[in-house]
Design brief:
Layout: E1 14-19, H1 22-30, E2 40-43, E3 55-58, H2 60-66, H3 81-93, E4 100-101, E5 106-109, H4 113-127, E6 136-138, E7 143-147, H5 152-155, H6 163-182, E8 186-191, H7 194-203, E9 212-215, H8 220-224, H9 238-246, H10 252-256, H11 260-267, H12 269-278, E10 296-307, H13 309-329, E11 333-343, E12 351-361, H14 364-378, E13 385-396, H15 409-429, H16 446-449, E14 452-453, E15 456-457, H17 463-470
Parallel strand pairs: 2-5, 8-9
Antiparallel strand pairs: 1-7, 1-8, 2-3, 4-5, 6-7, 10-13, 11-12, 11-13, 14-15
Length: about 475
């Protein structure tokens, strides 16, 4: 029996749209290949992973025919002896690595994040033909939420069709438009609110021939409560699933009918959110944009090898300098610096995560000293290091220079001018136009990462080969 009177809930016309295997689809489209039938994986080639890196995305055919999953290691992918030989020869000659295994009819291509971002922009531009920009919310690089409540009757006026028929037809129109203009297949979850649209997409649309599914308040008990296992429900990961199971919550039905007072007591406001979502309740309005109470900027990196403390200090300075430059770019100053240092897997300890409050600043010299202070205080003195994370928070926005009474003001003014000059040069000529000589050392990483987007290759690696094939 329903726990809410759904007749009192506002009905919205929400589409949750996902580009099927987005990165892999981008690579198929640029090669003139069918994204659904081509066996292709997007494979990172970072130095810190075993031969071939990690699978970032796999086409439906690669998943079906070879059992490929995201984050599978490149060494576990199928490879013909012929392709292995071609790969070995290219590596020895330091040539562009081959991407096509013609024996297995299987592509292994490097990522190009900037290209994917540009394709994402094109998709979102098409969405503007179907609803107002204010009623759009890019949920991720391959998923977008659309509220078509205001435009549904514009495309399908009159009362000959039901609201639900109009929704399905408009969703189909969007699918056709994106395929015809860009060559991508998209999955559409349709719902009376955001959570129902998301669940419809994740749990039904992806398995339907039409790649569309529609869930309404009337479907909550039959469809939402039937989702299994718990981890198939949006925002419930393996850790939360175990916590629910320890409470006797073994299904979404159990969660929807659990005492919400106890959920609130156990998990706070998040517990109430889980309870409402399990009952199909989500009062989010897409046009009401969330404004965070506080901002922060962060930069995380898995290092290409295990570093000792001496080697790591260069990485620390590089990462702090890069991140604080982004703070300056916002016209902000930070009052908190947070440092995470993760030790290598071979170490018995995991590492540490600490933060330090300071007078609002965006001075590279000051924040580097602050980061070094945290490291020297909490590093155990012997462990190898494999992961670093730096973040700045508690921003203030002003152009005033806060002088330190314990330092020469002339040096402080000089440092600020130097930071601004470096930022201006990099803005005009690129990050690698000016850098410290230490970054040229064998264990520096900033130059290699300069052209990365989201930690992955962002450039045109392999594009020359594609262009020659298409000519």
């Amino acid at each position: 029996m329903a726990n809410f009177d759904y007749s009192k809930e506002k009905i919205q016309d929400i589409f949750m749209i996902d580009v099927k295997s987005f990165y892999a689809s981008c690579e198929c489209v640029i090669r003139g290949l069918d994204p659904l039938t081509t066996r292709l994986v997007v494979l990172s080639r970072a130095e810190n992973t075993s031969r071939g890196g990690l699978v970032l995305a796999a086409s439906p055919a690669a998943k079906k025919d070879f059992g490929v999953t995201n984050v599978m290691r490149g060494r576990d992918l199928p490879m013909s002896p012929k392709f292995r030989k071609e790969l070995t020869i290219a590596e020895a000659k330091k040539e562009i690595l081959p991407v096509y295994d013609d024996v297995l009819n299987f592509y292994r291509v490097p990522p190009r994040m900037r290209y994917y971002i540009e394709e994402n922009k094109k998709i979102n531009y098409i969405f503007k033909d179907f609803t107002s920009p204010i009623d759009m919310h890019p949920y991720s690089i391959d998923e977008t939420i659309l509220d078509v409540s205001a435009s549904l009757n514009y495309f399908y006026p009159g009362d000959k069709l039901t609201r639900y028929q109009k929704r399905d037809l408009l969703a189909r129109d969007i699918q056709i438009e994106i395929y015809n203009k860009l060559g991508f297949y998209v999955t559409v979850g349709i719902g009376d609110n955001v959570i129902l649209a998301k669940l419809a997409m994740d749990n039904e649309a992806k398995h339907n021939r039409t790649m569309r599914a529609q869930w309404t308040y009337a479907d909550v008990e039959a469809k939402v409560w039937a989702i299994k296992p718990l981890t198939d429900f949006w925002s419930i990961g393996s850790r939360m699933s175990k916590r629910f199971e320890a409470m006797g919550i073994l299904s979404i039905r159990d969660l929807a009918n659990y005492d919400f007072h106890k959920l609130h007591q156990k998990f706070g406001i998040v517990g109430l959110e889980y309870y409402h979502h399990a009952n199909g309740i989500d009062r989010t309005v897409v046009s009401h944009k969330y404004q965070p109470k506080s901002n922060s900027l962060s930069n995380n990196q898995v290092l290409p090898k295990d570093y000792n403390a001496k080697e790591f200090m260069l990485i620390l300075r590089e990462q702090v300098a890069q991140t604080i430059s982004r703070v300056r770019k916002r016209g902000a100053k930070a009052a908190v610096i947070h440092l995470y240092v993760g030790y290598a897997m071979s170490e018995s300890e995991k590492g540490f995560s600490r933060q330090l409050k300071m007078a609002p600043t965006n001075s590279t010299a000051i924040v580097i000293k602050a980061a070094e202070s945290i490291f020297n205080k909490f590093y155990n003195g012997h462990s190898k290091i494999r992961h670093i994370g730096v973040s700045f928070g508690h921003f203030t926005f002003n152009d005033e220079l806060q002088l330190d009474l314990f330092s020469d003001p002339r040096n402080q003014i000089k440092d600020e001018k130097l930071d601004r000059a470096v930022d201006e040069i990099r803005l005009k000529y690129g990050f690698t136009s000016i850098f410290k000589a230490a970054s040229l050392s064998d264990y520096g990483t900033s130059l290699n990462r300069a052209n990365s987007v989201g930690g992955h290759a962002g450039g045109t690696d392999g594009l020359e080969v594609i262009q020659k094939r298409l000519e």
